[in-house]
Amino acid sequence: MNTGLRAYDSDARSQINACKKHASLRVKNALMSITFWDTPDVQIGKEGADFMIMCSVRADPSPIVSWYVNDTIIMDGPRRTVTEDGLFVRNLKTSDAGNYTCRAFVVTPHKSQILDKNIAVYVHYKPVWVNPDADTFYAVVGSTGSLMCEARSEPSPTFEWFKGRALLGNSKTYKIINEKYKSTLQVKVKSHLNLGNYLCLVSNSVGEIQKDVFILEGVPPNVPSFALSSDEPGILAVKIHQSPHDTLPLIGYKIQWKPATASWKHAREYLTSTGNDFMIQDLNFDSDYAVRVSARNEIGYSNFTETFIQRTKGLIAETVVDGSKVLSSTFSKSSRLLQNLPTLTGTSSIAIIINWFFHRSRAIS
Prior knowledge:
Domain Ig-like: 47-104, 132-214
Structural class: mainly beta
Order of helices and strands: HEEEEEEEEEEEEEEEEEEEEEEEEEEEEE
Largest sheet: 8 strands, mixed
Protein name: Hemicentin-1
Number of strands: 29
CATH class of the largest domain: Mainly Beta
Distance between the termini: 120 Å
Oligomer: single chain
Shape: elongated
CATH architecture of the largest domain: Sandwich
CATH superfamily of the largest domain: Immunoglobulins
Domain Fibronectin type-III: 220-315
Number of domains: 4
GO biological process, one term: synapse organization
CATH topology of the largest domain: Immunoglobulin-like
Helix content: under 10%
GO cellular component, one term: plasma membrane
């Protein structure tokens, strides 16, 4: 009887031990899912500081973590190191801003898991001038002058204008127009007291910059000179020369043209930006046109030049019969009407050879 009980107990213990061993293997091979904690979706650092991009990961077994920025893998280097707490960045730069991915990976003999955590990183930096050399503007007494101050920063900058020690605001004399990265101060120049030195102060939570901005008395440009020619049918070439007596740089010209017998009320015009050589196209062939030019600087326009009359070149068509030229004609209509020319027919072989070459370095239409 005792022998049977001992055998039974032995079998029971063997089964229990086998179950424990199997359960132990199941627990050992079990996978605890990846979770991210203490990992904000948006993280902000300051330019020039050392910064830890936080990414805390829980999983069992311990996960393998890799980092990516803008879909490019990050390798350990002098400035960036992957740690247990996240990605450590030394001397943070504005170029370090971007979309980061903290990728965790775990694997067991029977199962694996990969999970990403996307993190937007912003770098705060103090304002930086967009155009540091833009500090001089011009106006005349009795007009309105504009001063401009442009800078970029993160977070966005705040602009302030000063005249001496006085902080300026909107008034009968001053009007401030603020945009995200630019501020314009409009000044009604009632007298010479409104000219001179102004201060632009740009700041945000990281720092500030300032510079002196000047509004000086200017004068409109002098009348330019120009020459006309027509080397191609239906086109006028305009070559403009700036007056040597101008004190301010030009920012363009106004070119007006019309048929010679028409009124200037019906003239067409073109406002140029830069350059001195222009072409007026789509004019009637073999026709007289009147042209005049005005120069422009920051103050305004000059008076117009004297009016010049130039005849456009005609379109020459040579009629050839059996290899012999028998007729030359000049068309006075624009090129758009050429498609309406009649088709020449007959027993002789007739061809129209049109000597027309377009060289449009700069076209006005």
